[in-house]
Specification:
The chain is of the alpha/beta class. The protein is built from 16 helices and twelve strands. An eight-stranded parallel beta barrel has the order 1-2-3-4-5-7-9-10, surrounded by six helices. Strands 6-8 form a two-stranded parallel sheet. A hairpin with a 6-residue loop joins strand 11 and strand 12. Helix 14 runs parallel beside helix 15. The protein is globular. It starts with 12 loop residues before the first helix and ends with a helix.
């Protein structure tokens, strides 16, 4: 199964044409204001390597598996993190988004690793040293395997444990955190369902959950990333409890959620399906407590009455089989801004391609859209490109190249691409010329 099947999006010809127009002729737009965050993003499990205590380490090593290949050493960022942060700063960014791997800090229930806490404190200190505002995600698709073993967030004890984890991190290093999200894309399975693949793969995923339970002696095993909408109530409860815990722990930084959002349009002139998808995709999450919404978008779909339509032949697709659609970011920001008064950050946006000239075109089109949103008075406060590094891309393994920086799989040597210098210069001068 490709990551497309978890982050599915496709667009019709008209959407692709609008995307090309956004690249070729962006209208005049205001540059973002002073204090706007320009950064790159990454997730601990995708870049650190060796996250043995995580639930996904169990799942990705099952046979058969939905994962193309195991994560293994990933980018070895656990040992290269100081170099990566210094590189991001040298390119021109002023912020850095990363996740804190809960399983490194609490590998067994109630067993706290001071070494794990110290590692992430050093990551935050390094960001501050290089002038990067740290943006933290407390759970980026992964949980400790003991959480999955007891049913994920459907177990109230795990809701309380997550809140305690967020408070623990806040008390240990919260004075250095600039902004934080509790969960990364907790709404993703709704996007998947509209993509039409949930029913097809539900039996296979159920078999994997059962297999993980058998491998660990845990009949109630539920990895939240795979359990989907069945975990929604528990995740919402954990999010609310985490915000309270962060505040009780002295956290003064803004806290919110990041959401997977596709830039969609109605198929065949009937917008009933589009309206229903948009409501199911974001409304319950927008209503949750929090200070901001993180918009995470890559492409879009033509939406029929009950499902997304497949992409028509002839349009440009990325390595993820998404329509090449730089204006997706503008469309999704406007969608969210019309439905909430909360501040908005673009916490993920990017393109998977081996052709860096297409990444450059995508970046130019996306940033032009960002500036149009700012010009129209939308409370948009930051843009984070996914990703800094070519990393392990979940089910798709190491094939898709989202990174501004390539990583040699054997030596771990980092090599910035031309797109890295382009976006870094845009960040340095505060927008497109």
């Amino acid at each position: 199964m490709k990551r497309r099947e978890f982050l599915l999006s496709a667009a019709a010809v008209g959407v692709a044409v609008r995307a090309e127009q956004a690249i070729a002729a962006p209208r005049a737009a205001a540059r973002p204001p002073k204090g706007f965050l320009w950064g790159t993003a990454g997730a601990a499990y995708q870049i650190e390597g060796g996250n043995y205590a995580s639930d996904l380490w169990v799942v990705e090593h099952l046979k058969p598996s939905i994962f193309t290949e195991p994560s293994g050493d990933a980018c070895n960022t656990y040992h290269y993190v100081a170099d990566d942060i210094a590189l991001a700063a040298s390119l021109g960014f002023n912020s850095h988004r990363f996740s804190i791997e809960w399983s490194r800090i609490e590998p067994e229930r109630g067993q706290i690793s001071n070494a794990g806490l110290d590692y992430y404190r050093r990551v935050l200190e390094t960001c501050r040293k290089h002038g990067l505002a740290p943006v933290v995600t407390f759970s980026h698709f992964t949980v400790p395997r003991w959480v999955a073993a007891s049913g994920g967030f459907n177990d109230p004890a795990n809701v309380a444990a997550f809140a305690a984890h967020c408070r623990r991190v806040t008390e240990a290093m919260g004075e250095m955190i600039h902004l934080a999200a509790t969960f990364n894309e907790p709404n993703l399975s709704t996007v998947v369902r509209w993509g039409g693949l949930a029913e097809k793969y539900r039996p296979f995923i159920a078999a994997m959950q059962k297999g993980a339970g058998a491998a660990t002696g845990s009949p109630n095993w539920a990895s939240p990333m795979l359990a989907g909408e069945a975990q929604f109530d528990g995740i919402l409860a954990a999010h609310a409890a985490a915000i309270e815990a962060i505040r009780a722990g002295g956290g003064k930084f803004p806290v919110g959620l990041t959401l997977a959002i596709t830039a969609d349009h109605a198929a065949n002139g009937d917008d009933s399906g589009l309206k229903r998808k948009q409501s199911e995709m974001i409304d319950r999450w927008l209503a949750a407590p929090g200070d901001f919404i993180g918009v995470q978008t890559y492409s879009g779909a033509a939406v029929g009455k009950d499902a997304d339509l497949p992409p028509p032949p002839g349009i440009e697709l990325t390595q993820m089989d998404y329509a090449f659609m730089p204006d997706a970011v503008e469309q999704t920001v406007r969608l969210v801004a019309a439905r909430t008064k909360k501040a908005i950050y673009i916490t993920e946006n990017g393109v998977a391609t081996e052709d860096d000239t297409r990444r450059i075109a995508y970046i130019r089109g996306a940033i032009a859209g960002v500036q149009r949103c700012v010009a129209d008075g939308i409370d948009l406060r930051g843009y984070f490109h996914w990703s800094l590094l070519d990393n392990w891309e979940w089910m798709s393994g190491y094939r898709p190249k989202f990174g501004l920086v390539s990583v040699d799989r054997k030596t771990f040597r980092r090599t910035p691409k031309p797109s890295a210098h382009l976006l870094g210069e845009i960040a340095r001068r505060g927008g497109l010329a």
